[in-house]
Write a structure and sequence with these properties.
The complex is a heterodimer of chains A (90) and B (622).
Chain A lengths: L3 H19 L10 H20 L5 H28 L5
Chain B lengths: L1 H23 L7 H27 L9 H5 L1 H35 L3 E5 L5 E4 L1 H7 L3 H4 L10 H11 L8 E10 L2 E13 L5 E10 L1 H23 L2 E7 L4 E4 L1 H7 L7 H6 L10 H7 L3 E7 L4 E14 L2 E10 L1 H98 L6 H31 L4 E5 H15 L5 E5 L4 E5 H18 L6 E10 L2 E8 L31 H11 L3 E6 L6 E8 L6
Parallel strand pairs in B: 12-14
Antiparallel strand pairs in B: 1-2, 1-5, 3-4, 4-5, 6-7, 6-10, 8-9, 9-10, 11-13, 14-15, 15-17, 16-17
Helix pairs in contact in B: 1-2, 2-4, 12-13, 13-16, 14-15, 15-16
Classes of the chains: A mainly alpha (90), B alpha+beta (622).
Amino acid sequence: MIQENEIITLVLFIALMLFMAFNRKKLKDFPGIKIFMASSILLFLSVICTVAEGFLLEDELNILEHLFRSVSALLLVFWSMSFRSEGREA
Amino acid sequence: MIGLIDVLSLVFIILAMILFIIFVFPKKDRTAPLFKLIVITLFVLFVFHYVSNTLEWIGISEALDPYEDFIELFEPTFIFFLLYIFFSYISAQKLRDSEEKYRLIVENQTDLVVKVDPDGKFLFASRSYCDTFGKTEKELLGQKFIPFIHEDDREPTLREMQKLEKPPYTCYVEQRALTANGWRWLAWTDKAVRDNEGNMNFIVGVGRDITEKKKNEDDISSLKAQFEYVLTVTNTGLDLIDEDLNMIYADTNWIKKLGDPKGKKCYEYFMDRSQRCETCSIPEVLRTGETVVSEEFLEKEKRTVEVHTIALKETLNGKRMVAEFNIDISESRKKESELRQLLADLEKSRKAEFNLIEDLKEEITEKEKASMEIVRLNETLEDKVKERTRELELSNKELESFAYSVSHDLRSPLRHILGYADLLLNECSGPPSGSTVHLNKIISSADYMGQLIDDLLEYSRTGRAEMNMKIVDMGEMIKHIQKRFEHEMPERKIKWINGKLPTACCDENLMRSVWINLIENAVKYTSKKDQSVIEIGCKEKPDEYEFFVNDNGAGFDMSFYPKLFGVFHRLHSRSEFEGTGIGLANVRRIIERHGGSVRAESAGEGKGACFYFSIPDKKGTD
């Protein structure tokens, strides 16, 4: 079953991804951008899984959704750790 | 399985939030507060999300029911915040890039850039400014800029900066400042930055080192002064005129004489005319580009100038120009005129001189002829004189010989007369009669005649005797003569006054004769005085001695002086004083033979007389 808020979240995420793709050069000095982007992409994948599980492979995609979120959270740990060695901040 | 994953996710997100707080929060950054707030919010949302999942997994999902709506907002809010962060970051990045760019420009340009507050305290100083003044920005910030300025330039600077308070809120100042390299000239363009209410926030100044430019300006000023001095000294004027005959420039000499040339045409300025001159050479000079030299008379100044008109390559406002050098030739013209007059006069004078020379030539020729004639006559005259002298000498000798012969020959008959007269007188013994008186007179006259003959013979011998010159002590000679007179005339009272007499080179015998004659005269002519005073002395003169014999005797009238030294001339009768009148003539002849001279003085008859004779001092030469 498709939920309205999930679709909105997906659309917003697509917009976020496109924004990050177009401005990747300008964001290159953003602290820990690579880890942060990886975390965001995983989060985006989890949202896709959330939407997709309403149509097929509900359990598998649900597991993937939570797995992506978990890895995304783990990457945020690394992202926070990257500030230890960063010389500058946003 | 899913629940375990969610628990892990919760642990991870809590760990990430803690690490973020530890590493990021202590750092200070002007964009950090908002960034930190948003990231923490996201972490909180995450926490809520995973707590919700975990509780759901445990089976107490109803505990989160009051917060269900809040949790539902997690992902859209998360994305919104992320977008906001990224936008903020990109904007901040742009600002940083812009700032960096401007900082790069400011820091790397050679011009000095400063920002000061209205009190003149530094808010910013560019690297070039810091380098110039040998200070760091930190040392400058908060300090006033005025102390760096030369004392003499402070007041003008502050006065100029007052313009910043009025539109257009800019000013330009040139000042000397004490830099790390000493005093340097700096030119500042200042701009006041104001807030919306019009109050001055700060002043931005851009400065540049113009020391070299100033030096060049000084050099140019100096050169200009020197150039104008040269123009003044050489009495030369310089002016610039454009192709429309407008005056562009006139040197200070022109300005002093004719005033400011601005806005005037050249013919108005120089000639006081309303139309251009007919002989104006400027169009021709501009057309051909060749220098034209002309001569003009300046009506205003009443003087003539030689004008060198030169086309310039430079243009002014698109118009071509010429430079005119005006050399004052009034004086030289005057001098030329004077010179011409002088040459004419000279030519005239030369012609006159030529004529004069011609006349002179003729005169010289005549004079040469005359001179030659004179020389010829002189030559013959000398011969004639020699001949005459010889004849005269011969005649004198013959005459002297004749006088001697006559005198000598007369003595013989005279002796016969005296002898026979004595015999007759002896035969006429008895009382004196007329015959005896006559015989006595004959004998007396014959004696006198004999004396005359003796004197004449003596005079003749004096002239012919050979001179035997030697050094004679005159004092000794005088003493002997005086003794002789004292011996011969013991009855006479004579006071002798003898001065100091020198030795002299002379013939002793002849000189003795001189002294005897003079002293004898003095004794004779003082015989009627109760007390005879005879003074003998000498006055030493250069190259000669002048001896004298002075007495207080009869003296003489000076009117008869010319006859005094003549032969047989007497100024007194025989009855008054005896004598033949040949003594002084003898004295003169002897002294003249010695190369000397005689003279006599008397105050008058009865007032004594003084006889002088001088002879040359030949002691040194012989």
